[in-house]
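protien #1 (seq + structre)
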Amino acid sequence: MSSSVLNLGGMQSVSTMTGTIDYSQIIEQLTQANRAPGDALNSTIQNEQLKQNDWSNVAKLATAVQNDLVTLASAKTFSSFTTTIGGTDSSAVSASASGGATAGAYAINVTQQGSKASLTSGSEIGKAAALTDTVNSNEFSQPISLGTISATIGGTTVSHTVTGSDSIDSILTALFGANGSQVSWSMNNNQLSISNNTAQNITFGTAGDASNLFQVLGLTGQALAGTGGSVKSSLVGHAQLNSYLASANFASSLSPTTSGDLQLNGVDVKYNTSTDTFQSLINSINSSTAGVTASYDPLQDKMILTSNTSQPVSVTDVSGNLGQVLGLTSGVAGAGKPWIYQINNGPAQTSASATVASAIPGVSFTMNQTGSATLTVAQDTSALTKAVNAFVGDFNTLYGQLNTYTGKGGDLQGDVAIAQLGFQYMNDVLNTLPGMTQFAQQSVWGIGVNNGAIGSAPGTTNSLQVDSGALTTAFANDPSEVQSLLTGMATRLNTDLTNLTGQFNALTPNSLYSQNISGIAQNMENMYADNIKNTEQQQQQIYDQAAAQAQQMQTEFNQLQQFQQQMAAQQNALAAMLGSLKGY
């Protein structure tokens, strides 16, 4: 008996009565064939992505050029000057020049060296110490460390262990016995006086002492000659720099109000006696515009205000009495002397400050000592050449990339939106500028910026070149011409680059600000992004259709498999029936 066959479109003939079919392989082959058009779109997507990235890179490079153009057209680029000091006493003067300077030479003769005025506390500002004050009192020039302290009487060393409850009086008693026996001591005018009543020499302190009391008092290493030898300590009681003003151990009491206003040279310095330390007050004065430098002298226990000039220092208590407590409202003034100088043998001039900023336009000079010096002011070309070279470098990068993208085999070959940009930008740089008839040159060609290598014919290269020698010479001859040409070129090129990037800056014309410019590059990026999105959607539709067809085939093959199984069962049943009839 012959069996029927199932023809699968020429792919394979399969018996429907016996055997099995590899349905999964058939479905996979058919699905791959259905997905092939979608897979072919990957190349299109990749090409569109390359073009989108190219436009993004062009915008990035063009923005860098725009930034260079802003710097190039800045007034600072053309208004830098250098100063050189020469002459017989070149160390007598130092100087700097700003944008308003004029090139030239100036003979400066300093005939009198000035000195700064000062104001010093009229008396010690710290509270005087007493013999019975404990060593942990907040009054010494530095904290007293505890531990062993020693003295040598003749050849015998005597020691005492200092504790926080000790006083100067108790320590001296422990070392030398009762006051007036071996040694006599007293406290007068905030200084400790000690005299020797023995015939032996007495020395204060040893190398192994743990306590620094004798060091703080200025007695370490000092010797008392036998019988009648005497010594005085340094000041004992001091104002405390790191304590709040209200508890800084001042000799005079502060007014009850915590807030105050100390005026120096007409400048208000506000303070709070509960939250400001003596040191923070000094810092506030020094950071103010009062024109003084404040300091505390622990040797004299006085505050010193040193003026920045020869002008006297004035101190007024607007509120509170801190100026009085610091001894400044009735302080000792130190007179200053003005500086006296001549410029180009002109009349003698005086200055309270060593720095003079108004005698020579755009120039500030500082007198250091007496003597004669020559100040030469010259145009500084370093800022200009740096700005021009930075622009040329970034422009060439942009120009070269445009040529690469649009050249043979480039991603954007044939893209009309970008094909002429490089040519347009090069013309923006090199073409004649309008409104320049008053100058000898009409474009940047004449000042050393062109697209021909130095020594070659103009126009023979594909990138910009800078002849630094020609540029600096042109700038020295006519700074206004160079500034006008470069600024005009920068403005023209920046306008076209703004149309490309959509980036506004200081050179962007006002007319463009009123327009909603997104930039050619962004528009092209958006176009390619839409193309990619549409292609990806088309690709997904193909894949979805292939998947649906695969699902349909799977269903049909499942049905076919069921039919095959049924036929096989019927075939087996028929074979069995025929076998049972063989006996008849």
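ok now protien #2
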Amino acid sequence: MRKLKFIIIIYCWSMSVASQDLIINEFMSSNQSTIVDQDGNSPDWIEIYNASDVFLNLGNFYLSDDPDSLKKWNFPSINLQPSQFLLIYCSGNNLINGGELHTNFKIQQSGESVFLSNQSGVIISSTKTVALPTDFSYGCVFDGSEIMSMFEIPTPGYSNDLGHLSEVQCAYPSGFYDDVFELELASSSEDYSIYYTLDGSRPTTDDLLYTSPIIINPNTNNINLIPTTALEGPYQLDKFIWNTPKHVSKAGIIRYAGFKNNIPHTSVQSRIYFVGDEFNNRYSFPIMSLITDSLNLFDYETGIYVPGERFDQEGFKDAYWPVGNYHNRGEDWERDVSVTFFNENSSLIFETEAGVRVRGGASAAFPQKSLNLYFKSNYGLDKINYPIFEKSSITTYKNLILRNSGNDFQYTHFKDALLQDLVKDINLDIQRFSPSIIFINGEYWGIHNIREKYDKYYFKYKYQIPEDHINLINLCGSEVEEGSVDNYFEIENFIDNNDISILENYNYIKQLLDIDNFIDFIITEIYYANYDWPCNNYKLWKPKDLDSKWRFLIYDLDLSFGYNESSNYETLSLEHATSLLNEWPYCPCSNLFFRKLLMNEEFKELFIRKFSCHLKTTFNSELILDKIQSYETRFTPEIEEHIARWGYPESVDEWYNQINILKDFTINRPLHIQQNILDFFDLDFFDFNCETNQNQDYQFSTYPNPSPGELLLKVNFPLSKIHTLIVSNIMGEIVYEQSHANENFLSSSINLNFLDNGIYVLRLYGPNISLYTQTIIIK
């Protein structure tokens, strides 16, 4: 059977007998890879079809995307033969190029009607306003028919004949509509009976039989009243307790299928409709709709979203949090779900069936859960091709995370995303982030952060490494997620049983571990004061190539950056990172590499230099404060409705208070981590000056900054002894050094034209002390 090439239908209509002859047969409003014109471009296009049995001259016909200007583009005087198709590019160029026709308008992807009219200004063929995903088209299900559909496999210039079609067609795509409307369903087979549901369950012959158009209103389900956490338990249950929602917005949903002799003969299709002014420009985030049988989520024995049977069996017996069905894992606890995604402009991007599972440990016990989405061919699309994350080169995804912000669920709802964002430009892999609004079975389900999932597909699409060529392991090789442990235990054994201070041994380890990545990983965890580490949130990966090196992955940073008294700005994180205790969050194997590598002077010096550079650049307080503010601004329009849904945090004021904790950490952490480094390594000085202990009478400036290479330096304090000017790159490597023995004021220039474009750190040293530090940019 040919692959189904459409997923949605609409009805064409006519205003004259001419509509029986000349018809808009198909069009595309976002052409990326379907077809190119003679210049190699990919413009929008419209296909016209002559449904009559005589040729038609097109000179007196017009195309337009504006009902107030129907004669926007006039066809040339050419003949169209019976049953012939004509392709017109909507490039906006208004030209004829080697036989190609180009209109003077384009079609909006977000949705607009297209009109075909005659000389008298009578519309003879047109389409409803509809938003189309990229490389999807709209066309008549049968050439010249009244029923139109969204095609997954467009046919520009060729027949749309879908006589083999066995699916049920729906007259309106999922989307946003101003008013209540009547929804029509149709089947190409008279033998089919159409059954449908309005609550997310899969239709059977015991459900509603379609006999006439259905009035689409907002959803009237009340699944929001089903508790998703335990209601009784010890004192710590207060941390996880379910709150009755104060307000839940609802959209209309429908699921339908065709049956013959009480047996389903078509797939189950799902749609969601946001109806009325309530939803007009309401959300600033993208929207993802999940539709599934409520028993998949809330059934006592098989539901994945409730405490259920497992809580009654285990409860709080072996954990601080309430264990429930939501902690069951593996394919047996994957459920089918219909996924519809709209971008921030409310345009429909994709719609497919997929698999869903709950994810997380303690965070799965919160009322709102994190979810994994799996795109597989046995459900629908086997992957998503869309740039979900801003400024990411990756546009293909097999799996996605819908994160409840983990242990930050009750606080800012964006901490981990923010902290990973801060280190996106250093030698670490991160999980990109896009905030979204989730609806489940038509009900508002709050803010979820769409995140990348560390798995074989992440590395396949990011680094073009075959998916069967990846090793991905958890803490100390205790769990293999992809591939095998490879040589990990050999490395661990070598480090544990050899003197790493010996250069030869250190050089051997450098061949097996990505040292630069490892140092960036350790510095980030230490600076953030992550308490849920090192004996947790610890993953490594490498390709299976013999000469590849293990790299560390950063993730789940919720219990850091001021989360509690164990992760505040005064935390002695170097001691935490090297502790020999053997209880959570410590275990000897988790920090073995760091403890042993610190015995090597080369590694230790590199670690200290890189920490200094990161404090001046990556963890610059002003930059972090700006980033926090941008996240606060982005989430502010959405947080009130989210709190009304879940009761976490307890109020908008408390949300702001939690953000202020992040800001307080940002301001105070540099001074304390500087002292921690000085004490831990027994240093006389550390070349990072916090604003709070820097001499306010000193003034040091560089101009211009950014600079093409030549910098003018001005210092207003006397240089009574030898002073040294040093420029280092982001790796901590010295790229320029100059000494001065001048008792007068310093005013001079330096030429750095030989340096590559990038960020550098300029430091002025006095005897045994760093006087001043400034970041400079060469470009």
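The chain has four domains: 6-165, 196-451, 468-680, 694-778.
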